[in-house]
Design brief:
Order of helices and strands: HHHHHHHH
Helix content: over 70%
Distance between the termini: 16 Å
Radius of gyration: 18 Å
Length: about 240
């Protein structure tokens, strides 16, 4: 658990700090990266997270309801986060004198906290297997997420010091989600089945985010061969990694 905690924190920090190395952001290349990560996340949700949630549940209907709840919770969160969790960068929406959008930051931290809970598995889950593919999928998701957040704070709003502090807090959100689920599901009397509903809830989150990335990667239904290729590679990579990791 400690290793996963550190990996999530360090990768998120490095992704956010990489904003200082980018002098001129190439949005076309960034959208190709988003297409790959979104496709990977979608594939991971379909072949891994959803089947596992259903397999461990004793109430399939309730599991489906939690998927729906997760989907619409993420829809509501997006009103606050402005889509940063799926790579939206709105530099033109913020002036250097703007106050820090704390509602956006709070929504992002809540989303990150929930997804961090995926990395704890009760003994019945995976039957002792590692959670490497889930961790890798989260990393791919958090890289553009952290980069987009810092782009708004540093490049758009000129909030360097504040941006760094908020990046540290945001980087801790997913690791704290891992700690919280580890603590809660190790409490005496907590059924392991409850964790399947956590999986279902976050699956709904991921379905919303990944499908939104798909739709936004082809605005006006225009064909983009590089983004289509990135999406296919992302989906296939998730399948291969799920067998390998």
């Amino acid at each position: 658990m400690l290793v996963n905690f550190l990996i999530l924190f360090v990768v998120t920090m490095l992704a956010g700090l990489s904003v200082f190395l980018v002098k001129d952001l190439n949005m076309k290349r960034f959208k190709v990266l988003l297409a790959f990560s979104g496709s990977y996340l979608f594939s991971l949700t379909v072949i891994h997270i959803l089947p596992e949630a259903v397999h461990e549940s004793h109430n399939f209907t309730l599991t489906g309801i939690f998927v729906l709840i997760g989907f619409f919770v993420q829809l509501v969160l997006e009103f606050f986060t402005e889509g940063v969790e799926h790579g939206h960068i709105h530099l033109h929406d913020h002036t250097p004198d703007s106050s820090v959008p704390m509602a956006m930051f709070g929504g992002l931290c809540l989303h990150a906290f929930l997804e961090g809970m995926l990395l704890y598995h009760p003994s019945s889950f995976h039957e002792g297997e590692e959670v490497g593919n889930l961790l890798f999928g989260l990393i791919l998701h958090k890289i553009p997420e952290a980069f987009a957040l810092m782009s708004i704070l540093v490049l758009g709003m000129k909030q360097r010091t504040t941006g760094f502090i908020l990046l540290v807090l945001f980087s801790l959100a997913s690791p704290l989600g891992l700690l919280a689920s580890t603590f809660f599901f190790n409490l005496e009397g907590v059924p392991e089945e409850y964790f399947s509903y956590v999986f279902a809830l976050i699956a709904g989150n991921f379905l919303y985010i990944s499908t939104t990335i798909f739709f936004e990667s082809s605005p006006n239904h225009t064909f983009k061969a590089n983004r289509l290729l990135a999406s296919v590679v992302g989906a296939v990579s998730a399948v291969v990694a799920d067998y390998a990791l």
